[in-house]
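Here we describe the complex-level prediction in full. Unlike the single-chain runs in Section 2.1, the three entities below were treated as one system.
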Amino acid sequence: MNAGDDSAGGPSDSPTRAEPFPYGILGVDLARIVRSIPADEPPPLAPNAELAIIGRSATRLDARDKVTGASRFTVDVGLPGMLHGRILRSRFAHARIRSIDASAALRAPGVRAVEVLAQPTAPHGSNASTVRYVGQPLAAVAADSLAAVEEALQRIEVDYEPLPFVVDLATARRPTAPPVYTADDAPRGSASGYPAPAGLPLHGNVRGPAIVDRGDVARGFADADVEVESDYATQVQTHCCLEPHAIVADWRADGLTVHVSTQYTSGVRHELAEAFGLPLAAVRVIAKAIGGGFGSKSTLGVYGRLAVGLSRQARAPVRIVLDREEEQIDAGNRPSTWQRLRLGARRDGTLTAVRLTSYGSAGVGLGAGVWSLAERLYPCANFLGEQHDVFTNAGAGCAMRGPGAVPGAWGMEQAVDELAERLGIDPLALRDRIDPSPVRREERRIGAQRSGWFERRPPAADPGPIKRGIGCAQSLWMTNVQLNAACEVRVHRDGSVEVFSGVQDIGTGTGTVMAQVVAEVLGLTPQAITVRIGDTRFPAGPPSYGSRTTASITPPARTAAWHVLQSLFREAAPLLDADPAALFAHEGRIGVRDDPARSIALAQAAARSRTDFVSAVASRADDYAGFDVRMGDAAIARQYLGGVQFATVAVDTETGIVRVERVVAVQDCGRPINPRLIESQVQGGVLMGMSFALFEERLLDRHTGHMVNANLEQYKLAGACETPDIEVIVLENYQANSATDAYGIAEPANIATAPAIANAVYNAIGVRLRSLPITPAAVLAALGKIPSRDAP
Amino acid sequence: MQQSDPSAQFGRSTVTLEVNGTTRVIEVEARTTLAQALRGPLGLTGTKIACDRGACGACTVWLDGSPVCSCMLLAVGVGHRQVTTIEGLATADELHPVQQAFIDEDAVQCGFCTPGMVMSCAALLNDQPDCQPDDVRAAISGNLCRCGTYPHVLAAMHRLRKDPAP
Amino acid sequence: MMKRFAWTTAESPSAAASAASTICAEAMALTDGATDGAIVMAGGIDLLDLMKEGLLAPARLIGLRDIADFGAIDLERDGARLGAGITLAALAADARIRRRYPALAAAAAGAASPQIRNVATLGGNLLQRPRCWYFRSRHHRCLRRGGVHCFAHDGDNRYHAIFDNRRCAIVHPSTLATVLVALGADVQLTDAAGGSRRLPLEVFLTPPAGDLTRENILQPREILHAVHLPPISEGIRMAHSKRGEKDAFDWPLAEVAVVLDLEPGGRCRDAAVILGAAAPAPHRAVNAARQLVGAVIDEKRATAAAAAAIEDATPLADNGHKLPLFEALVRRTIMAAAQGRLEDSILR
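The structure predicted for the assembly as a whole is:
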């Protein structure tokens, strides 16, 4: 806490104070709880119903710029003297680079800089004398025009010695598979989300297992009355941000400025400072409008470092924008997974044992696990999880909307349905027994009503070729918080307000919810607040990933505004002849709480400021109830996020075509700040989940290692014609944890959709689809309708 | 046939475009797409390039009032047809009704597909003021949105739909 | 980025033909598709795609947009003449076409996306190159691009042909061709001297045996000028259905056009059943038609025809699903035509 006026706030000699907070689920068990909170935190916020701005659907502040084309994305940034850069990439899935000669490129017309990576002495962390996937960067060129760049790239001579390679998960697991790495050069670490010990073994291409062993699964299965065991698989999904990865790097003697399409301005600053040996103070990162991220713009990556390297060489700004093919092959992806789940249960549904084995591939990277959803969603005393990463000759995976949890739910939420059927219990009734979460219990109750669950019929009940069904699945996700998150609020002498943070808005409405929170405190409208974000010159902003942005930045926004307001109250007090503690802010005025007729304009108080503006900076306090986990700047709240989704599908059993007709999504995110923005996020999560379930798949040719659908035509994204009716219901779930008590929503909304659809397909046709995507080919095969053919 | 036309050589040639009601003269290569011409020499960056293959609709502009993918047209081939971009949709002091409805229904997330989406919707509304939800779906079937704004786009268009005269 | 080229326009069909020193297929069989020849371009949707992918690099493009009546629709006493330059959108919207050839208008309305339909032309749709992802990859020089190997055979062939796929397994990409062949359309080709030849589209789409580099018999110095449709007699019924993984803006997994000539009593006098996305050319399901001719069409008859339509199929490793899909779609499309519906719209 670094308030503009250090006497602001409560009794500063006392580190904490006790306050009563709303606590619980609105409509279920909303009550009060007394929390001890840091003294400089603002007082508790009432439930949304009692607030003016928070909990209302304020219009997105940047919507006008977006609908008029005025928003300036990184691809729209042009600087005087700017050069264009592009990257030369490997044509081979695995090769040793015998030599690379860029001298002719350097002499080509218009060329101003060349960076070569594919040498043992390569700069900036990519010692790629061996290339391990098609699309791996080898070199980059900057020139006056893109045409000159392309001609120069063709003059770079690369002498490849092709090596054997493997691109599919199953083949890569075999001991005889071509090794992607040697023991020395393989990345270390573990499967996604698993707190594994360092030094996991590497056998061939298989890293792991990362093990979680709790209780005694053998005993648990011995105690089980019934068991289910099945295998579930998910494909590689690519992020497909509409705005490609893009950067404009401007290296100057007095420092480096980059405009970049990123989910984390502050993180990029750290990356660049480290990679180029610059002080943090000499690096400025700007991201004003970001055309989607979904996890793929969490870090800067090689392309960004190449742009900076080129700019340093050329002493001119350099822009690199990836094309769609590059986006598809080398901008991250959701790793493929295969998992075997075995559940043991008593007749009443009580779980006695859960065993999970997984293998996933993030290509040349790590992090292809199925997270800990199977372990956490339905607590079971006996759990054994063994997760493996498998290296393949493909572009590295990275986080993508609910990483690990999406494939995790794909398995577990089907396995629980399979168990329910084996037990002869309604799938929701089984979850009522084994899921302790009161939030999801309420979400199931609401969703069942809204979705028509009680009219659900037995599998394959429709007589004709078109069969309809309904399915349900649940999600679990972390209530992530970034503690390295700060915000400054300024009220100028004329009463106008500015809010500053480095945080970026990737389309979620971060700036808008910050304005709402500040407006609520100051008694203004969100439109009256000027939000300035996406620039590392402002106070440290949290990343826009892990569904943590709202949870991290809205509390400091409120706290800073509250401190500014206390200063204004002190200015106003003499004018109103009242004690500062007796004042309140409402509709642009400061008034006396017990005598509202006595008031002055907020600007009148602000005008008395000693300096041009009254300012306070606040940072994210710890959750008032403490954290479940804390790792450096990052933490996870005690109560995780839930969500329950219901899908209604129609399946044409003659063509195999599946259409999702309706989805009911019941979600929670703590205190909802802007219902319509939340609805947008949930719809987006559902649609990305549906698109994953039915259409999307990265396809690599096993003989050449090339992605055959590296575009937006054969890599299929759901469009408007495939969009179902989506009903979004958001609970108010007060946890008394921060100045706003808000958490994220983007990822929880994407986790349950695919298994809900699979469970609905099963209910429709009586056959279970355990591999994604659920294409017509997959459905017809599952129905036994594809004639046998000669083995290839 | 103008095989001997000296302007038809590899270098840059002068092209006259009618953009947003204004005549603009620019120097481009024959290979310059309309999208590149708009974003480059004409400085109209509201038109986006996301796939550069006509597969996503982010570059949607109007040619004589009909939506087209400007990434799949050559600037030299546009001729006398009127080009309308997102910058030409609103007047100085008034948004196009589709733009206002997009704001009101939050039919916008990251905003990168939005200019193209707006252009497709506004063209539909011009042609078919009584458009039904399925007409909207069909009209934006060439506009991909990764954020998933389609439901709110449908809501925005529902708000604008004029019921046919009885 | 496309390679540089020169741009000119032609104002008459013969001028265009005279300038068209090469054709796309000829150029694409060369390394990098680089040719010093000139290629004609109408809407350009496919050509620009190929050029951007680095598969085609002509020295010159000749724009056809200025040719008068290239985009005209003329209803003739004995049928219709469609200028090859008509856009798919115009074809879909034309009230006369919708009335007389409803399946054609519907097929045009369902192709690609609104933005593409406003630019793409009838001629371009018929002449577009296949969508096989190996053919479309500069990293895979396949048989059809003058190479020695079909990558689809041992690669991923889920979208490939189930008929006539022994050497090259492309499917013909034109949705309009499927309907036009079913309707018995002709094409009119015009040469540099202004002379024209007219031949059945089905013949036009049959390249010489063994020539895998092209999908039609268009020659250099020749342009596809128009499509002629036969008249529609009283008993003609037509329907067109397609299914892709997505409902819109997706390439079909299976596509069927059916044209029936029914006697007043309902007996089928003649029938055409054409499968699209099935073979390197629109595939005439002769045995299916044979099941229909002479019969009153009912579900049982349609089912028999559907089974006959796929009996000679030779699916590849990944595309066996096309068989049940086609079987269902053939049956439904026959029934739709017989019952006077435009398409099988079940779950679409």
